[in-house]
Structure formats: C-alpha cells, structure tokens
Specification:
The chain is mainly α and 303 residues long. The chain has one domain. It has a four-stranded mixed β-sheet with strand order 1-2-4-3, with helices on both faces. Helix 5 crosses helix 7 and helix 5 crosses helix 8. The longest helix has 45 residues. The N and C termini lie close together (7 Å). The model has no long low-confidence stretch (mean pLDDT 81).
Length: 303
Amino acid sequence: MYKQIAENKRKTVFLIGTFLVLIIGFGWILSYVYQNPGILIIAVVFSLTQTLLSYYYSDKIALMSTGALEIKSKKDNPYLWRLIENLCITSGLPMPKLYVIGDPAINAFATGRDPKHASVVVTSGALEKLENEELQGVLAHELSHVGNYDIRVMTIVVVLVGVVSIAADFFVRTLLWGGGGDRRGREGSSGALMLIGILFAVIAPITATLIQLAVSRKREYLADASGAMLTRYPEGLAAALEKIARQAHPHMARASRATAHLFISSPLRNGAEAHDKRQGALSMLFSTHPPLPDRIVRLRAMV
C-alpha cells in the first residue's frame, strides 16, 4: 500500500513538473516573439481570477447539479453516518457533510476545497447494492480524496491549463490579425522561432488537457491506495469496483461532463472509462478515470 501511494505521488509531481516546463517554454517563446513578458502575466492573472471563483463555489455547483440531498443528522441515515464517522475517527479527518443522490447507479464522489469544507456524496444505488465492507471501501476512497487535497491539486492543474489555453489563443489571434510588435523587422532571425511558436500554440492546449486528465487518473489510483490503507481491507473497494463494472446501467440521470471527473467511476452514458479491457490507447488518453479492471488488479496486489 505504501509503495502504491509513494509511486502515485511521484507520478503526480512529475506530471505537474512537466506542465510547468511546458508553460515556461511556451512563455519564453511568446516573450521572445513579442518582446513583451506581460502576455504570460495577463494569462496567469485571468486564469487565477476565473479559477478562484470555481475553487470556492464549485462544490455547491456540483451538489446542486447532481440533485444531492443532505443528510443533516445521524437519525436521517444512521448506517451511512456511522460508517463515515468511524472512518473519520480512524483517519483523523473532520466529519464532512453527507449527501445522497436518488439514483440506482452505484457511484460516489467527494468535493470541497479542504477537509474542513468537504462533502461526501453517495447514490441510493450504492447504499442499496453494496455490502458493508464494499461501501466502507468506497467511502474510504472518497475521504482519501479529501485527505489528499485532491480538489486543491486539480484546481492548480486547472489554472495551469487555463494559462496555456489563454496564451495559445492570444498568440493565434494576434497572428491572424497581423500583430506581433516588431517581429517583422526580425523575420530573418525569428522565422524558425515563429514556426515553433505556431506549432506550440496548436499543440500546447491539447498537451495541457492530456496532462490534466493524466493527473486526474493518478489521483484516482492514489485514492484507491489511501482508501485501502485506511480500511486495511483492499478487497472491500475491489469488490465494490467489480459491482460497478458489472452494473447494466452505470450512467446517471443527472450526470454531466463538468462533474464526471469527481465520481469514483464515470457516470456518463458514453464515458471514456472502460468497464472491460477493450479500451483503446487513444480513448484512455482522454479518460478522467483509470480502467476499472486495472484498479481492481492493483488493489488485489496490495499487501
């Protein structure tokens, strides 16, 4: 378990490091072409402003969009309340707000910017169809997202994606409108760099999105391992993921692409996540979740 956790943390750091290199490289090219480093600063400020709003209010938006109903006290759902309460005592995390979505699909998600402002959500299908150890494994996975500050990590990644996308869009639009400062006077020396800049402007946003999705998948692996360590019973979560993979209708009625990455398994009708091993490499690149069979194998390999 500890090996899995350490490996996933290293890979996340590597991906975010790659992200920063991408942004610095792109920023250097733009600054050279335009002789103006302010372009990247504007992109950063705009992205931060946009993301700060979602950072503080995204949990409320997610809860409203999924139709989640709050469990306000233990008497409303003693079974779910006790499971979460016991896991919080074990992990040392504060008690999150609890919500239930009236949907027959087996699924769950956690949201909130930090452990003090966290919410854990499960579907009625998960409550009805999962055994005690299986539901405990799912809840431990979601609490691990909270304890690992995954919302904060993904917020940082979203900011980086925004910086790349805005800078690339600005660069392309300026070229179309004939901008670029005094670059015409430097055509002989900067022609090759301009070509590199154009290629970067096209490729960088795609690369940034792929890194964002890769970080999301690594955080799922990390939450699996951390959740298994919390319960000391990897088989519980593995069995729950098997049930999720076998369900005939895994999609949820009020699922959307905006919140799909939050769930333990993709809630979309045509989600990129595979419930079998026939998923193509290209499809995997654009998936917010690792394949369920791979997650199950990793859990059962933990000792």
